[in-house]
Write a structure and sequence with these properties.
The protein is α/β, with parallel strands linked by helices and 321 residues long. It has two domains: 200 residues, Rossmann fold; 95 residues, UDP-galactose 4-epimerase, domain 1. It is 39% helix and 16% strand. The protein is built from ten helices and 13 strands. The strands form four sheets. A seven-stranded parallel beta sheet has the order 3-2-1-4-5-6-11, with helices on both faces. It has a two-stranded parallel sheet with strand order 7-10. The protein has a two-stranded parallel ribbon with strand order 8-13. It starts with a strand and ends with a helix.
Length: 321
């Protein structure tokens, strides 16, 4: 039986990844500051601890795991990442986790390690046109991410690649583009745009919802099941990356809101307000993943939003009752 460790297993993507690995027959250990918020973990073993502490990481990575998935990070949606109020914590905590995990993985002779980077590493200059963003993998340099979160992710990419060169750590790196789905953060300030929009529509009793900025900023959003399929295919390949894992179905934030309203059958007005926005436009470029893995995501945004809205609407209803 193959063994896997998921760092960040209490989070949205990590908890889904644990379940996927279990279905594939792995023995799985999860590790995080907390257990999953929305349901019990399916991990065989779960260590609750702070991965910025090297003693915890030594306890977690205590054998030569077949696969380590490093998803743990200090992160959130635009309201958390782009406010500027959490920059020091984001950079310190996430970088410390990655430094600890890389060192300990070499010491414990981990066979293969996956690192989840982010589309936030791409230069702001390439994402000023909402209709024509450039997120080709090799456009990351000269580096100019739009947030400290992006800078840390870029540093950690290079750190893991250095560990591969110098210490033989077998690394795979993917840059995630706005992953969403059920059982993710949907309130409190750390939620991503799809979850925030689903919550706003589900909660609205005033006939309107608020959208930050003019709503013409564009993004692509990838359903969590497709993300994990890409991760597993990358891990089973001989390609190190970095490679984008994201959708090419680009929509404006206004269009995203309208999609959710249509799913909910709640026609509402959009009220535009000031708020943190990030780059003007962003879309995954999938040429490299198709070339290297012979695969790319295909699920329609509307289909993923439908199941996500149903889940969030149920959370809202339970909270109100």
């Amino acid at each position: 039986m193959k063994t896997a460790l998921v760092c960040g297993a209490g989070g949205f993507i990590g908890s889904h990844l644990v379940s996927k690995l279990k279905k594939e027959g792995y023995w799985v250990r999860g590790a995080d500051l907390k257990r999953p918020q929305f349901g019990e973990t399916t991990a065989d073993d779960f260590v609750v601890g702070d991965l910025t502490d090297p003693r915890i990481v030594e306890k977690v990575i205590d054998k030569p795991f077949d696969e380590v998935y490093q998803l743990a990070a200090d992160m959130g949606g635009a309201g958390y990442i782009f406010s500027g109020e959490h920059d020091a914590d984001v950079m310190h905590n996430s970088a410390t986790i990655n430094l600890n995990v890389a060192r300990r993985s070499v010491e414990s002779k981990v066979k293969k390690l996956f690192y989840s980077s982010s589309a936030c590493i791409y230069p702001e200059r390439n994402q000023l046109d909402p209709d024509n963003p450039n997120c080709v993998e090799d456009s990351a340099y000269p580096a100019a991410p739009d947030s400290e979160y992006g800078w840390e992710k870029l540093f950690s990419e290079r750190m893991y690649m250095s560990y591969q060169r110098n210490y033989g750590l077998n690394v795979r790196i993917a840059r995630f583009h706005n992953i969403f789905g059920p059982q993710g953060t949907w309130e409190g300030g750390k939620e991503k745009a799809p979850a925030a929009m689903c919550r706003k529509v589900a909660e609205s009793k005033s006939g309107e919802i608020e959208v930050w900025g003019d709503g013409k900023q564009t993004r692509t959003f990838l359903y969590v099941d497709e993300c994990l399929e890409g991760v597993r295919r990358l891990m089973d390949s001989d390609f190190m990356g970095p490679v984008n894992i994201g959708s090419v179905e680009m929509v404006s934030i206004n269009q995203l809101a309208e999609m959710v309203m249509e799913i909910a059958k709640k026609p509402l007005k959009i009220k535009h307000i000031d708020g943190p926005l990030g780059v003007r436009g962003r879309s995954s470029d999938n040429h490299l993943i198709k070339e290297e893995l012979g695969w790319e995501p295909h699920l329609k945004l509307e289909d993923g939003l439908r199941s996500t809205y149903e889940w969030i609407a149920a959370q809202v209803k339970a909270k109100e009752s």
